[in-house]
Write a structure and sequence with these properties.
This protein is of the alpha/beta class. It has 4 helices and 5 strands; from the N terminus they run E-E-H-H-E-H-E-E-H. A 5-stranded mixed beta sheet has the order 2-1-3-4-5.
Length: about 130
């Protein structure tokens, strides 16, 4: 087991998958190595620029403040996530960066796609982690 919270992210432009990532915080000991941030970086690298207009960010879990801010900064055109994060979610749960009208653009957001599957994956991970302690 990698001991990473099982969050995955994909950046796509239409039918084209530009980048895929999973959490790597524990693996590379980097607090910013969230799946969403890594996928955004890889997509920007593939496209040769930081503006990801016309792209969708898909994630297993609602983005945290850092990842929601990075999606906004990258000019993502759409956000889709499976499970809400009531303790750290900044795309609807605790705060809503993608929908904040004070920022320079709004990111249309779809919540709950594959909710049950993602929630079960996360529940199982944390249950097993608690049992191992």
């Amino acid at each position: 087991m990698r001991d990473e919270v099982p969050v995955g992210a994909v950046v796509a432009r239409g039918e084209e998958i530009l980048a895929v990532a999973s959490n790597e915080r524990e693996t590379i000991q980097d607090p910013t190595a969230h799946a969403e941030l890594l996928a955004l970086r890889r997509a920007a690298s593939k496209l040769g620029g930081w503006r990801l207009t016309g792209c969708t960010l898909y994630s297993t879990l609602e983005p945290c403040p850092m990842c929601a801010g990075a999606a906004h900064a990258a000019r993502i055109s759409r956000l889709v996530y499976a499970a809400p994060d009531p303790k750290a979610g900044y795309a609807g749960s605790l705060y809503n960066i993608p929908q904040d009208s004070r920022l320079n653009h709004i990111i249309p957001t779809t919540r709950g796609v594959l909710h049950d599957e993602a929630s079960e994956l996360l529940r199982t991970f944390f249950k097993e982690r608690r049992q191992a302690l």
